[in-house]
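BUG: 3D viewer hangs when loading the predicted structure for this chain

Environment: internal workstation, default settings.
Expected: structure renders.
Actual: progress bar stalls at 90%.

Input used:
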Amino acid sequence: MAFPDDLLPSRLSRRDFLKLAGLGLLGLALPAFNLRRVEMPPDQQGRVAYDYVDLYAKPSFDAKRLTRLWHDQVVPIAAVVIGAEKPAYNRLWYYVPQRGYVHSGGVQPVRVELNSPQEIPEGGVLAEVTVPFTDVYRSVERTRPPVYRLYYATTHWVVGLVKDASGQAWYRIEDDKWKETYYYAPARHIRILKPSDVAPLSPHVPPEEKRIRVDLTHQIVTAYEGGRAVYAAKTATGMGYFGTPVGEFRTFHKRPYRHMAAGNRAEPDYDLPGIPWVCYITENGISFHGTYWHNDFGKPRSHGCLNLSPTAAKWIYRWTLPVVPFHEQYAYKKNGGTLVEIHQ
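Structure tokens produced before the viewer hung:
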């Protein structure tokens, strides 16, 4: 299934390419332009999001396996190619120079963007990680092992700037899951966001004219203004017993970040700090949100949530209602928000 025709540019510029890559839509768009390979910017890298991924001589799981990359290994990505017919839902492969081809599903696209430290306003401010990963500690002295590893494009609430004995700057991050818990991350790895980074999209459009349609069969999220499709992205929805519910919902509760964990700190089934751009549609936690533990959109694989690329999740967050004020950490409007229609 192709995404809406009016969202397809007449020609694929570098800017269009990068936009489609961020939405997880390249696998749908490139065949329309009869493209099999597109070169990537020289600073593009990929981080292994799975426990491991394999490199192949050709973009196919049937090709000769060359070597293995392990979790959190970072490699350059020179090109994106359309690979073998299977898996049909995601035919995108990355070319790693002089090493081979790796399927995109287990590799998070990342970059290294270093930042200058900034003073933090009272009450804190939203920030995002701009390197493949960064380790955070209980104190800047780092006398104990890291508490967490924070990943590219995750979002966090920064409440302070401090320096260690050597003069290195660290941001103090407040954990929204465990009360009165703080971590310290290297300031150069974190970008402090500005109001313009999260400003509402299409604020002139009447709220009743905005709606989101989720196609569970084809795993595509489409945003409409009136009868016109204005945005589309591939998703990964709930699988099996944890299937995403069908029906009409609203984005009544939004957070720019969320530490999601099951169980407790002693016995966690999963523990994911900094999940970005969260838009809840049910009281029991089903939401749209950004994803950094996989890049495999187009098939069900979640515990009910609608996994999106961080780029797509941020767009949905900015476009939907209610608006989260810049210096606040959530917005809640019971029975309010943007309409979401979920269909099989």
